[in-house]
Amino acid sequence: QVAREVPLLVLDQAYDAKDQVERVATQGAMVVLTDLLPHSLARAGDPKNAYAAFDPTALPATLDAAGVPFAIASGSGRLAPLLPLMAAAAVGRGLSPEAALRALTLTPAEVLGVAADTGSLSRGKYADVLVTDGPLFATDSKVLMVVARGRTEFEAK
């Protein structure tokens, strides 16, 4: 039997996926996580909700600890503005801010096959730059400047 390579997995509402992380890691897969918002689920033990104890925001730290490259995605255009909140929620559940930033920038570029052109700050790459007055995922950080297409698009007064 020939082993098949699994290059990419998309996990949406991946209940109990943490039990499969080691298996994913051995396959060498890259993972795209969607729907990483904390949910209001029923209390643990409630028969109406088998996933009451599940917190999707804990999965990124588990994947990172296992060395599984992952991207955080919105899953829909409607949820795209919530990407920073999804990453911040994962940071709040143990993911390092550096890993969260990579999951929003370089790993998605790698998944899409465009990492040579974008996804990180390097000479010759396309990039937008966001400057904040504090840690990127802190709730009280304010945006000071946005540089896009080589121009200052926003600057706080």
Biggest sheet overview: 3 strands, parallel
Strand content: 15-25%
Q: Could you estimate the helical fraction of the residues in percent? A: 10-25%
Mean pLDDT: 83
The shape is globular
Structural class: alpha/beta
Q: Summarize this, please?
A:
With 157 residues, the protein is an alpha/beta fold. It contains five helices and six strands, in the order βαβαβαααβββ.
Describe the model.
- The chain is α/β, with parallel strands linked by helices and 157 residues long.
- The protein has helices spanning 21-27, 59-65, 83-92, 97-104, 106-112; strands at residues 8-12, 30-34, 70-72, 129-132, 143-148, 151-155.
- Helix 1 (21-27) links the parallel strand 1 (8-12) and strand 2 (30-34).
- The N and C termini lie far apart (64 Å).
- The relative contact order is 0.12.
Note the topology:
Layout: E1 8-12, H1 21-27, E2 30-34, H2 59-65, E3 70-72, H3 83-92, H4 97-104, H5 106-112, E4 129-132, E5 143-148, E6 151-155
Parallel strand pairs: 1-2, 2-3
Antiparallel strand pairs: 4-5, 5-6
